[in-house]
Amino acid sequence: MRVEQIAVFLENKSGRLAEIMTILADANINIRALSVADTADFGILRLIVNDVEKAREVLMNGGFTVGKTSVLAVEVADEVGGLATVLKAIHKAGLNVEYMYAFVNKSGENAVLIFRFEKMDEAIASLQKDGFTLLSGEQICAL
Amino acid sequence: MYWEQKKECLPRPELEALQLERLQKTLQRVATTVPFYRNKFSEEKLDATRVNSLDDLRRFPFTMKQDLRENYPYGLFAIPLRDVVRVHSSSGTTGMATVVGYSKNDIVNWSNLVARILCGAGVTADDVIQIAFGYGLFTGGFGLHYGAERLGASVIPISAGNTKRQIQIMQDFKTTALVCTPSYALKMADVMMDMGINPNGLSLRFGLFGAEPWSEAMRQEINDRLGIRATDNYGLSEIMGPGVAGECQECDGLHVNEDHFFIEILDPETLEPVKPGEVGELVITTLTKEAFPVIRYRTRDLTRLLPEPCPCGRTFVRMHRMLGRSDDMLIIKGVNVFPTQIESILFDIEGTEPHYRLIVERENNEDKLTVMVEVVEGIFFDAMKKQRAFVDMIKKRMASELGIGVNVKLVEERTLERFNGKGDRVVDRREL
């Protein structure tokens, strides 16, 4: 139930993000979700794409430092309180979120929350027990 | 103005005769009293009693900082400890301090040589000298202090730091001469501005600066902003401390106290003398030191001699302000830092053999060292908290091992220049 995510190290220099997007576009890679975390000095770009291995390869060839991690994709109804329900369950289970981001499905019915937990296996078990829907990588790309 | 005119203006042949006589004595003394030198001389079949000219010194081996460390603490002393009246030491931030000692006579000579430098810079017994060098094992504070007392000036032994108080005292006590590092003088000028104090309203006239490299532009700035005449002086704890050389009021090169120190300027690669006026490494032999004589000490400081006679009338040779180092040592906030130290810390960090670059800048008159580290997969984390913790970990290790705080900046892979063979990883942007 894990989804593969790639992360790219970014210096805060103008044009770098555009460069990454061009590299991905030229390789015909489709981005499903992304987030950028940044500090004054550097940033971390996180991406969920339709072809993880290819994306990794082209970015590394382009001179970028790329990491691969697994994250969880939790589907919730796109309505008021959707995220709150999940976070409440996470809090109750005593799970620690390293980071998260979210995107809304094209249809507008569901939202997808991407989570990275310190203890991924515990998180999967706990969320499934509470009845949340976890999406696979293929499912996300098919959305 | 001379402190000891006869000595400072000795005709060259007489000076050289005096140097030879003192050199012979020194070589013979170390050969009999310091096992380190005795062994070295006998290994190379050198007879210390058969030195007939100053050129003969060139046959004798060099003394390196490493030799001082290996003989820590008292191994190179030439007199019994009971006759040593003072001990000083280098900062030893890397855990490898060097220790030097002084006999009663050494202290008298030291004070006298510092008095010469103060006097040469224009300071007299009527002056009030504020010594803002650290007192303690560092030779700067006590060295200048005793010299200033010897000169008969009024000494304010305020030591380093607490800038506002320094300025307050400067105002209240009517300080006329300031002794510190040149960058601290500029910091004082900044703080004066913040405090709304006009330096022209002070009694300050002279600044005697040393202990770090500086430039002509920096001298101009200090002169303009503090309304003083800044002069440079040079010394190193291994040789004596301040008092080895200093500028006269011509402010054009530092007169070496040649009756006490024999200097050579050598090519750091071939170790042969450079042509007159060419840049090379300064090598010093002490001629009068009793407790801690040093033969052909490789200072690693690069300079060149200014062979033309000085209008001031002194016959002592002048050397240019220090131009750099023959090794890659950096002096940051007064602390010796070797790029190799930083390299070994980085290489010690798991997951990486990073490429790095060191950037040295001077901001608000304070040195700032930035270590740029290329982020490779082993040290890249997708969680910001982990990436920041990684940076903090490097900073902490650098601070504890180097003794100074550094900035760490992560940069993208393959963005730092690559070198074939020996790379120049240091960018020194301090304008010197």
TrEMBL record, chain A:
Domain of life of the native organism: Bacteria
Domain spans labelled ACT: 71-143
InterPro entries per the UniProt record, alphabetical: ACT_dom (IPR002912), ACT_dom_pair (IPR045739)
Pfam family, one: ACT_8
CDD domains: ACT_Bt0572_1 (cd04908), ACT_Bt0572_2 (cd04882)
PANTHER family cross-referenced by the UniProt entry: ACETOLACTATE SYNTHASE, SMALL SUBUNIT (PTHR40099)
Identification of the protein by name: Amino acid-binding protein
TrEMBL record, chain B:
Gene Ontology molecular-function annotations: nucleotide binding; phenylacetate-CoA ligase activity
Class of the enzyme per the UniProt entry, highest EC level: ligase
Every AMP-dependent ligase C-terminal domain range: 334-430
AMP-dependent synthetase/ligase domain location: 23-285
Pfam families linked to this entry: AMP-binding (PF00501), AMP-binding_C_2 (PF14535)
Reaction equations catalysed: 2-phenylacetate + ATP + CoA = phenylacetyl-CoA + AMP + diphosphate
EC number(s) given by UniProt: 6.2.1.30
Transmembrane segments: none
Superkingdom in the source lineage: Bacteria
GO biological process, alphabetically ordered: phenylacetate catabolic process
Involved pathway(s): Aromatic compound metabolism; phenylacetate degradation
InterPro entries cross-referenced by the UniProt entry: Adenylate-forming_Reductase (IPR051414), AMP-dep_Lig_C (IPR028154), AMP-dep_synth/lig_dom (IPR000873), PA_CoA_ligase (IPR011880)
Keywords annotated in UniProt: Ligase, Nucleotide-binding
Physiological role: Catalyzes the activation of phenylacetic acid (PA) to phenylacetyl-CoA (PA-CoA).
Family designation: Belongs to the phenylacetyl-CoA ligase family.
PANTHER family linked: PHENYLACETATE-COENZYME A LIGASE (PTHR43439:SF1)
Subunit and interaction comment: Monomer.
Protein name (Swiss-Prot/TrEMBL): Phenylacetate-coenzyme A ligase
